[in-house]
Amino acid sequence: MTTYQFAGFWRRFVAYMIDGFIIGVVFIVLMIVAVLAYFAGAMSGDSGAFIARITDPEQIALFTLWTWAFSLFMNIAYFTYFHGSTGRTPGKMLLGMQVVSADGTPISYGIAFLRSVGYLISGLVFCLGYIWIGFDKKKQGWHDKIAGTVVIIREPQGSNAGISIPDAASAPQSSAPFGSASGDLSQLEVKKTETPSNEEATGVDVQKIP
């Protein structure tokens, strides 16, 4: 059984900034393409009517609303996809972290979606849900508590402070899929018989621990 430490606030903050930058770049590129296409189509018609439309406060408000909705959709889709498929966004890959369930199993796309929506809750009231990470025993933000997840540092730390997850080599074989509720929960208590190499501990870049 290998112990993985919980990732702290600043490490997760840097990863989130990296992911935010990636989302921002993609968002800007798509917005530029959309605006250019809109202008090209509008300018081919009555220029007077076009100017009246882009200066209309109601049209400006509608455009702002659609921009915000599209940005929100991109954020939820981005984090749902990466967390649901591997538990790791590009930012978390660079910082050596992974999102898993509170019992150490990989999370599904449904849980990843719930966690992504939970970001909205964490962002309320001066981002207290994110700040909570720095004070929580398991380094969970409000979105983690909503989805029942934790963020771990993928490299085994050799410490008792963290979450212990059975090694693939030492866990008994079972016909139930990994992480299934019907599996033998006592597997979490199995002690490892040998220390895995660093390659075995980190594994390939899929939702699998180790």
Give a short summary of the structure.
The chain has 210 residues and is mainly α.
What does this structure look like?
This protein is mainly alpha-helical and 210 residues long. The chain has one domain (4-161). It has eight helices and four strands; from the N terminus they run βααααβαααββα. The protein has helices at residues 9-43, 47-54, 57-85, 90-94, 109-122, 124-131, 142-147, 198-202; strands spanning 2-4, 97-101, 149-153, 163-165. The strands form two sheets. Strands 1-4 form a two-stranded antiparallel sheet. Strands 2-3 form a two-stranded antiparallel sheet. Helix 1 crosses helix 3 and helix 3 (57-85) crosses helix 5 (109-122). The longest helix is centred in the N-terminal third of the chain and has 35 residues, at 9-43. It is elongated.
Spell out the key features of this protein.
210 residues, mainly alpha, two-stranded antiparallel sheet, 8 helices, 8% strand, elongated
Q: What topology, given as strand order, has the largest sheet? A: 1-4
Given as residue ranges, the uncertain stretches (5+ residues, pLDDT < 50) are 174-204
Helix/strand-derived category reads mainly alpha
Number of helices: 8
Main beta sheet: 2 strands, antiparallel
N- to C-terminal distance: 10 Å
Helix content: 40-55%
Shape, please? elongated
The gyration radius over C-alpha positions equals 22 Å
Strand content: 5-15%
Number of domains: 1
User: How many DSSP-defined strands?
Assistant: 4
Q: What is the string of SSEs from the N terminus onward?
A: EHHHHEHHHEEH
Oligomer state of the chains in this structure:
single chain
Q: How would you state the average pLDDT, rounded?
A: 81
